[in-house]
What does this fold into?
Amino acid sequence: MKRTTAEQEVSICYHIICMVLTYFAILHDQDSKFDWFTYQRFGGKWKYMSHLLLYGSAAYIVYAIIVDVINILKGYSDRPGDGKKTFVAIARDSVFNDILLPFSLGHSLVFVFTSVVDHGLFISLINRRKENFLSYYMLFLHVFPLIFCLLESALVYHKSSHKGAVKIPFGLAILYDIWLLMVAFFGSYWSYPFLRRASTFVKILCLALFPVIIAGCHFVGSKFRHWLWGLDVATAEIDGKQKDE
It folds into this structure.
């Protein structure tokens, strides 16, 4: 095993810290006896994007730690231009760029917007009566994935996705719309309160805009990563050309 680099140490330490936070959040989710009107009905917790992101983030973090260990054992620093990435690292980058980041950003934006519309920021969208008891947990559910992704983008280099990768989050967002429609049909209720109160036109508009928002967040995420790492990538490419010459 070669000597670890600063990039390797920062990456694995950051992922371990996030794994601890996510672990306690999942423990709270498992141990809490929720009696929300919609929580115990058709689809359970899996009809909410916040819970999907919580468990999805946990799975990604575990996989990212595995990639960190492989990079340390193989001696890959994970810097721009530091040789070819391994298959496991490429898979990690694709999942982060094309799924986790756009959905985390889109979910947080929708949460803030609907909270403001419901006359209050950081209010539980599931049941207002539980607001005082669950405010910190609900805030964690809706904001942590976004904060994690922003810090992940800044601390860990992820190779850019190919041009057609926007189809992945767009297609998954459509599948989530279909899942919400299935819950509404088989469960006879809408998962989110603002959809229950909205007119048919507004429901259709919200469901139609969601894939567009997620696709737009994919574009914003790619621009954000380019802003963070563009100079390093360009410098690595210049150094690589000079070495070839």
In short: Confidence is low (pLDDT under 50) at residues 120-134. The two ends are 31 Å apart (CA to CA). The longest helix spans residues 200-244. Helices lie at 6-31, 49-74, 87-117, 131-155, 167-187, 193-197, 200-244.
